[in-house]
């Protein structure tokens, strides 16, 4: 085995031939501390999982994309809130109700219960080609003072809030007058009043007090109370109106009428929470929430589309566990509009959000994939005097896809770095030790030589 000794790279010097110095011990201690620090830092880095991001063309074959949302409109009742979808391919869907939940909110944002997904259909009297101006105006016009007097004197008061320019108001007018004439010939005539209020004329102040913005609105006043939040929502025929009066004239409570679907009770400043999901084409488009009704017209400049976005995401909804797996930058861009409020500052103000959506795939080390979407949001508002305002969410799908992949440093790479650290520090400190040792010896010898001279 003597031949093995001949290939020994690290031959030992006898201890008697070595010399220990104070400077060398200090340098050795410092080098040990440096090596320990670098070892711990690299070991910590080895244990961490890093993310590598690449950008490529989106290879998704899906033709639809899911949008999940939760939007609260502070001043738009659910009975008028309509969610519509349109895109550049010509798609236009109005009052979408599938997978949508509407929740009635009071002025403080508290839940009052679920609203019907779609408005109740109202039967109208057969339209006739008559001159509205020639119809006898039998029912009295009221303003704030007259309404208070009538409510004090009558057990049941119905007021038709109308606008002359509104086609639905014009259609209701002959029906209202006929019903009034018939009721006045019944035995309950002394306990009932059917009146009307022109919201563009003498009844304008009364309409503002009663928060009427849709025409026609028929308010029901009971118990001698001139502040009412009960609205008649039954059929607009003289038979239905007469039947409602006959059934409610001596009924001090609105419970039976609400249960029968003939009336509904709201509050001042009632709003609507709209939440759910919609499937849209993967092309530029928008979905918007606005006021819409097949039996009402809306007063221009009086609709307020201020809203609060609780949630707005794209793609399949992620569970809390899956969401926690996403990198921080991806998670931050997943629900950008969450918990943001947007206030309309003027009349007929449309609030629009421009969303740029990017498909994102996160590949875990376990070979599991999470498909989600990031987006950026820019919000703006504008006033359009010619149309009704809306809360608009415009989206545009990016043709690129972001792939984020988890990566961990290999053990071989970690071992190579540790060897390089130990060897490098050992070599450098050895050079420093040699420089200090030989330099100090040289200086000492020169000083001794100077003394002898």
Write up this protein.
- This protein is of the alpha+beta class.
- It contains 10 helices and 20 strands.
- It is rod-shaped.
- 25% of the residues are buried.
Could you list some keywords that capture this structure?
453 residues; alpha+beta
What helical percentage do the residues reach?
A: 25-40%
Work out the number of β strands.
20
Q: pLDDT under 50 segments (min length 5)?
A: none
- The arrangement of helices and strands along the chain is HHEEEEEEHEHEHEEEHHEEEEEHHEEEEH
**What does the overall shape look like?**
rod-shaped
Strand content: 25-35%
- Biggest beta sheet summary: 7 strands, mixed
Helical run tally: 10
Distance between the termini: 56 Å
Rg, Cα atoms, Å: 40 Å
Helix vs. strand class: alpha+beta
State mean pLDDT (0 to 100 scale).
84
